Structure formats: structure tokens, C-alpha cells
């Protein structure tokens, strides 16, 4: 595996034409060491930190089986309309104070339209004026190129749209929109001149081949930020009884995504709570980015703890050097 890691560092890129079975059978420590070496050589030693806020709670029209906010399931998810600008500004101010790189508003539903979309634009414009160094990201479902361009004009740099899994497995988790819808959205994001953040959820019942296929697709699409979520089964959802992935599986998944996407931010999102130390080993297995603070409907890792852990691993905090206020 050291030979393969060195080949990737020298410019080789894995494709669907390659035999990738070694990534699944290689001794875990060796695989993770190779992934960490690829990360260090091709991405450097900086780690990207971002925070998200749930801009609107519940009542989502889509039937994604993992989601607490879907109207198709009976969960204890809080329901509320699009947040007031003051609340969103406070979250952005806190992210700036903590020295985070990115701040994102996320809304669950097929799309964000009408008055709520206009409110989002106003909030982004206000945050961009007040905190020009903060990279603003957005996640509002399936939008038109025109709407995406309006987001960019309001200060958004990156748009998030997870593919979630492989094309083969996607119909098993959602039937209210298609995998093709996801791909077309990513293409529209690029057409609008925005960077793409797209990854998925692992532990929904997919096979290892599904995981490889998702990683390969994201490489083909040249996605620069890949969030990996390890499923947290939520009572009331269709996946409430899913078996939780082992830590070894999570580490191998992280390493595999690094081998296939050697220059991307591999961004650990939900599921770090399964590790008592905040997922320290994930950042020795190819990861170089993470969501910090609370997630959408589950608790995340606190930022102070994350900073201490990452500094102990000799990471430099931030995509670029920033001063905490």
C-alpha cells in the first residue's frame, strides 16, 4: 500500500477501471498510514473547520429514510420557519469569534423558494458585509442556476448538495427525487461559478462497492469538499434500527476516500461522537476537515475540544492562517 500511496502522490489517480479490492483487504493501520501520507503531501497540514445552522426546522417534503426532518416520519424534530436574520448573524459572529473557516445555513426540503429564499439572500448579504473573511456556504436543495448565481452575488462561495450514496443504492434511501437530480444540481452549481461540497452518509445498508462508487463519482466530478457522515440512527426514521458502523469501518472509509480523492477536503461530519476522543484516529487516516459544534438534529463535538485535539496532532487550524478574536 506504501507503493500505491507514493504513486498517488506522484500523480496517479484511481478510477473505476482500477482493481480497488486492495483498499478493502489491506491491513487497516497500513491503509490509514498511507492515506495520512497522501493527505500530508498533497494537502499540507492545515485543517478546515466549519459550522452549520439549521435554517428551518422540519416539515421536509422529501422521504430520505435517514432524516429526522422528513414529514414522512414521526420524530421529535422541532418545527419552525426560516430563522430571523438576527439569529443567523449571531451564529456567524460566533463562528468568526472561534476562528472557523466556514459558516453555512442548511434547510431541509426539495428547494428553498419565494419569501424564504429572499430572506436567505438578505441574511447572506448582511453576514458577508459584517464578516468579509468568513467563507459562507449554503445548502438549500435543488436550485436553478439563476438562484445559485444570486447566492453567489450575496456572498456565498460554496454550495452543498450531498449525493448521499451510490447511484445503485440511492433508490433504497429516497424516491421523491433522483440521483440524476443530484448530479444535475452539482453541474448547475459549477455553472453558477460556485465551489461544490458533496458527500454522503455511510451506514445506511450500502455495500463496500456502493462506497467505492460514490468516492469514484465525486472524484470524476472534481468535488473539492467531501463531507462523510456516519449514520446516527434517529428514532422514528426508517433507519432507526440500523446497526452502527464499527470504528474500524469508519477509519477504512475515511482512508479509502482519501486514496480516491487525494487533493479534496475529506470533511468528517456526523458520527464523530462514536469515538470517545472526538475521532482523533480519523485525522490520522486522511481526514483534513470537519464540522465542529452541533450538527443539524444531533449533537456534534465542541470546538474547543476539537482545536485542542487537532493541535495535539500538529495540524494548523484553518484553511489559511486566521487570528481568533
Helix content range: 25-40%
The largest β sheet comes out as: 10 strands, parallel
Order of helices and strands: HHHEHEHEHEHEEHEHEEHE
Parts with pLDDT < 50 across at least 5 consecutive residues: 295-300
How many β strands by DSSP?
10
CA-CA gap between termini: 43 Å
Shape: globular
Structural class: alpha/beta
Number of helices: 10
Provide the β-strand percentage band: 5-15%
Instruction: Tell me the Rg in angstroms.
Output: 19 Å
Mean pLDDT: 91
Describe this structure as you would to a colleague.
- The protein is an alpha/beta fold.
- The chain is built from 10 helices and 10 strands.
- The protein has helices spanning 2-9, 21-25, 28-43, 85-97, 114-130, 145-153, 179-191, 208-220, 247-260, 303-312; strands at 46-56, 102-107, 135-139, 156-160, 195-197, 200-202, 225-230, 265-268, 289-291, 316-317.
- Strands 1, 2, 3, 4, 5, 6, 7, 8, 9 and 10 form a 10-stranded parallel sheet that branches.
- Helix 5 links the parallel strand 2 and strand 3.
- Helix 1 packs parallel to helix 3 (28-43) and helix 4 (85-97) runs parallel beside helix 5 (114-130).
- The longest helix has 17 residues, at 114-130.
- The model is unreliable at 295-300 (pLDDT under 50).
